[in-house]
């Protein structure tokens, strides 16, 4: 079982709170390590920062007083942001879970208590709340798995490339990883619009 994120997101303490949320995208990208807070997909898959969105964890439509509160903002891919939308289980911005429904903030230490990533890159639930999140944010989509595996292969290729020094064994491994990378890249491209 792996964590959803390659690197756990955490809010930077030096961020200025009183800015309009739209001006916080650069800070959010940095704090979320250029990846979706919910599914861990890197922003470059969606066209970089401009393709990513700012989610209001406690929805702006229900809690307008939190519109510009930095710790209520989540750097999000469009798939997760649309899936979560303005759903919220309670009438309180601090009660993100009610019974078996709700959302865990991705910067919370509890996030990994509800969701994890299988060895094959798919996202799975550890709890009923995790299952609710998977369904609502469409974390079950093949794209999340393929993107994860593709990025893992990319990292391995870069690692092997650094170590290649006329070693036929490493060249063969590099070629094997590159072929696997392009296989997953083609799956992603062929299924990018599939649900």
TrEMBL record:
It comes from the Bacteria. Coiled coil: none annotated. InterPro entries: HNH, HNH_nuc. One of its GO terms (molecular function) is nucleic acid binding. SMART domains: HNHc (SM00507). Residues 23-82 form the HNH nuclease domain. CDD domains: HNHc. This is HNH nuclease domain-containing protein. It comes from Vibrio tetraodonis subsp. pristinus. The lineage of its organism: Bacteria, Pseudomonadati, Pseudomonadota, Gammaproteobacteria, Vibrionales.
């Amino acid at each position: 079982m792996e964590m959803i994120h390659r690197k756990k997101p955490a809010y930077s303490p030096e961020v200025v709170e009183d800015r309009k949320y739209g001006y916080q995208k650069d800070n959010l990208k940095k704090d979320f390590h250029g990846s979706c807070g919910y599914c861990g997909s890197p922003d470059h898959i969606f066209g970089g920062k401009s393709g990513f969105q700012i989610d209001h964890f406690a929805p702006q439509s229900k809690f307008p007083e939190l519109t510009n509160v930095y710790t209520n903002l989540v750097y999000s891919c469009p798939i997760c942001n649309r899936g979560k939308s303005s759903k919220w289980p309670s009438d309180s911005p601090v009660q993100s879970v009610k019974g078996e429904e709700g959302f865990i903030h991705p910067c919370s230490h509890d996030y990994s208590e509800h969701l994890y990533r299988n060895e094959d890159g798919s996202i799975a639930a550890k709890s009923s709340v995790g299952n609710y999140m998977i369904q609502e944010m469409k974390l079950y989509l093949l794209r999340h798995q393929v993107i994860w595996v593709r990025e893992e292969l990319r990292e391995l290729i870069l690692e092997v490339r650094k170590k290649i020094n006329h070693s036929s064994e490493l060249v063969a491994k590099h070629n094997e990883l590159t072929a696997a990378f392009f296989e997953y890249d083609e799956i992603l491209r062929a299924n990018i619009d599939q649900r």
